[in-house]
Specification:
Blueprint (H helix, E strand, L loop, with lengths): L1 H15 L5 H31 L14 H15 L24 E3 L17 E5 L1 H8 L3 E2 L8 E7 L4 E6 L4 H4 L5 H5 L16 H5 L5 E7 L5 H12 L5 H9 L19 H4 L38 H28 L1
Antiparallel strand pairs: 1-4, 2-6, 3-4, 4-5, 5-6
Length: 341
């Protein structure tokens, strides 16, 4: 019974809903479309008219009271009256940078290097592409990197303008990237493109003895002429003479006085030996000091001790044991005296 009632109810509701006329819906949509097209056309026409119209005064202002308005009107009139100016191309009759290095000089700087608070606090003004072996051949070993964590060695320079430069390698060795992996790891990367493959890095010793070209970064002080320095640096790399050979030819072999058995000669010509410790440093070597200030006898060198004054390690250990035993005996006597009291 309930099923029959439901069927009758739904059939009655369906008879009440009448379908809308399809033509009426199409006409309404067309009217909406035509209305929107007309509105867009009218808005575009208004914009074009505004562009074509000149500035018109539609309101009456008191120009003495509203000074800002008067200034605005005057500026607009002045802009409209200005003629169109043609762009003039600048002609450079000289090079933008001076590349002449005839009077330019630079040298290694060890006494007053450039200060860097952090690794990237100074901009990299340029890069020099060279082989590490040529740099060591021309300028020696430089100094260990203490201002750049990604570098292994640093070379400080100073030029005749008293500007300072730092040349260093950056992230080129295992000191930054860590130890290399097995060769099988690198062989498995054949399926990757060349730019995505990981490569083994050389050790610092291998890097500075290699003859391949690597980029070296350059930092400098403000307003330094780094272009001239770069040209001068590359010219110095072409020299055939070694830097260490130059030092040996100029100053000779260095003496460290590190061998106890060998005999060394000490030069007594400096003023410290002639004037009793008073050092008179003269820039003009032709001037002579007053001889009355000199001592009657020159300072003698310290005499080496004979073998009878020398003590072996066994004797030293024996003496130390005896001293320890004496201290123990003294401490025991003090304890006994305190117990009696």
């Amino acid at each position: 019974m309930i099923g029959i009632l439901l069927k009758y109810r739904f059939s009655y509701a369906a008879d009440q809903i009448k379908p809308k006329d399809a033509k009426r819906i199409i006409y309404k949509k067309r009217e909406l479309y035509d209305r929107t097209v007309k509105q867009n056309q009218e808005s575009l026409a208004k914009i074009e008219l505004k562009k074509q119209e000149t500035f018109k005064h539609t309101y009456n202002y008191n120009f003495e009271q509203y000074l800002k308005y008067t200034k605005m009107v005057q500026s607009l009139k002045a802009i409209q009256e200005l003629p169109a100016q043609k762009k003039i191309k600048k002609i450079y009759d000289r090079p933008r940078f001076d590349a002449n290095i005839t009077d330019y000089k630079a040298w290694l700087n060890f006494h007053n290097p450039q200060c860097k608070v952090q690794d990237h606090c100074e901009p990299v003004v340029c890069k020099i592409y060279a082989t590490p072996k040529d740099i060591i051949n021309a300028f020696g070993f430089g100094s260990e990197a203490f201002r750049n964590r990604g570098a292994t060695r640093e070379f400080d320079f100073e030029d005749n303008n008293l500007d300072k430069f730092i040349v260093y390698d950056y992230r080129q060795t295992t000191q930054y990237w860590g130890a290399n992996k097995n060769q099988a790891f690198y062989d498995k990367q054949v399926y990757l493109k060349q730019k995505f493959r990981r490569q083994p890095w050389p050790t610092p010793d291998e890097f500075w003895s290699s003859e391949e070209i690597y980029p070296f970064r350059v930092n400098c002080t403000n307003n330094a002429d780094y272009r001239k320095f770069k040209r001068w640096f590359k010219l110095q790399l072409n020299t055939e003479t070694n830097y260490i050979d130059k030092l040996l030819a100029k100053y000779g072999q260095s003496v460290y006085y590190d061998n106890y058995e060998s005999e060394y000669k000490l030069d007594q010509n400096p003023t410290i030996f002639q004037y009793g410790g008073r050092q008179f440093y003269l820039f003009d070597k032709t001037i002579k000091l007053d001889e009355s200030l000199a001592l009657n006898s020159k300072l003698d060198l310290p005499v080496q001790l004979d073998e009878k004054y020398r003590i072996s390690l066994e004797d030293l250990r024996r003496l130390q044991r005896e001293d320890q035993q004496k201290k123990i005996q003294q401490d025991t006597l003090k304890l006994k005296e305190q117990e009696k009291l």
